[in-house]
Design a protein that fits this description.
Helices cover about 20% and strands about 40% of the residues. It has about 120 residues and is α/β, with parallel strands linked by helices. Strands 1-4-3-2 form a 4-stranded mixed sheet, with helices on one face. Strands 5-8-7-6 form a 4-stranded mixed sheet, with helices on one face.
C-alpha cells in the first residue's frame, strides 16, 4: 500500500489551483466531475493534492497537511515576498526539527517541516 493523494474541499477552484501552483510548485494533472463536484488533481512527482469544489459557501477544514522541505527559511522568504505572513511559527522543536504553518485560500493549514539541517556548500 502507498499514499496516493490528500483531498481539500475548496470554495473557488481556480484560486486554490493558483495558490498551490505558485507556492508548492504543483502542476495540474487532470480534471473531472463526480457527483456534481468539480475535481482537480495537482501533482509534483508522486505527491498529489485533490481539490474538490461543489459550490460550498462555507468550507470547514479540520485537518492539516505537512510537507517536508529542505529549509524552512526558503519557504518563509517565498511567502513573505508575496505579503503572506505565517499563521504560526517558525518554531524549532526539541528534536531539532524546524516548522512553520500557513493558511491556504480556504483556511486549510499547511505545515512546512525541515527535519535536517541544510548543509552549506
Amino acid at each position: 500500500m502507498r499514499f496516493h493523494h490528500f483531498a481539500i474541499e475548496v470554495k473557488d477552484l481556480e484560486t486554490s489551483i493558483g495558490f498551490y501552483q505558485k507556492y508548492l510548485g504543483l502542476h495540474e494533472e487532470g480534471r473531472l466531475q463526480f457527483n456534481k463536484e468539480d475535481i482537480v488533481f495537482l501533482a509534483n512527482h508522486d505527491f498529489r493534492i485533490e481539490l474538490i469544489s461543489g459550490g460550498q459557501k462555507n468550507v470547514s477544514q479540520g485537518v492539516h497537511i505537512c510537507l517536508e522541505i529542505d529549509t524552512v527559511q526558503e519557504i518563509i522568504n517565498t511567502f513573505n515576498q508575496n505579503g503572506i505572513i505565517a499563521a504560526e511559527g517558525p518554531y524549532k522543536l526539541k528534536n531539532g526539527w524546524k516548522t512553520v504553518f500557513y493558511e491556504g485560500p480556504d483556511n486549510e493549514v499547511i505545515e512546512f517541516l525541515q527535519v535536517r539541517e541544510k548543509a552549506d556548500h
